Amino acid sequence: MTHNPLLKHHKAPDAGTTPDTSAAFPAAVTAAEVAPVSRPSLYPEPFATQMAKREKRQLGDQFGLTNFGVNLARIAPGGTSALRHFHTRQDEFIYILAGQPVLVTNRGETPLKPGMCAGFKAGNGDAHHLINRTAGEVVYLEVGDRSAGDDVIYPDDDLLLKEDSQGNPQFLHKDGSAY
Fold first, then answer.
1. Helix (H), strand (E) at residue 71
2. Which spans does this entry mark as compositional bias, Basic residues (predicted)?
3. Do the beta carbons of residue 21 and residue 13 sit within 8 Å?
4. Which fold has domain 51-149?
5. Nearest to 57 by CA among 34, 39, 40
6. pLDDT in tens, 8-26
7. 4, pLDDT greater than 60
8. Considering only CA atoms, which of 86, 84, 134, 143 is closest in space to residue 112?
9. Nearest CA-CA partner of 139 in 57, 35, 40
């Protein structure tokens, strides 16, 4: 066997400087076996019931990921991924695994199919969500970063999500009053 200088050799971190906390999390999981989130949405009513046909499994949390989240999401026929929204500080990305949702953005509607993906840059004002208008289930991966200080704007609804002074998210009416 010849030495290839292009191959990187991984060296274990110095035991004195980097504690190994990996034992607290599994090396791998079967995504479909991760329990779905018990509440379909944290939205206040009347918006929460609109998410009844959506299911999310928080895959990234299974590994202790803190800088970004990864969800395996499913939308039943007639359901939607979220209220149409955009983030001020957090990027989002979706990858369609199954089904044919419609992506609704400020630019209009775009039919999606398995293998397609879409990204939503923070702060650009392009509100988005997926709608399942088919008779089959939609399955997709959803990835989003967890940058602090993020506000979520819902242009079609009387709803804002803002962080309070302690960094806790709170839902507000557009006039700033609490739900």
1. strand 68-75
2. 1-11
3. no
4. Jelly Rolls (2.60.120)
5. 34
6. 544 555 556 778 877 899 9
7. no
8. 134
9. 57
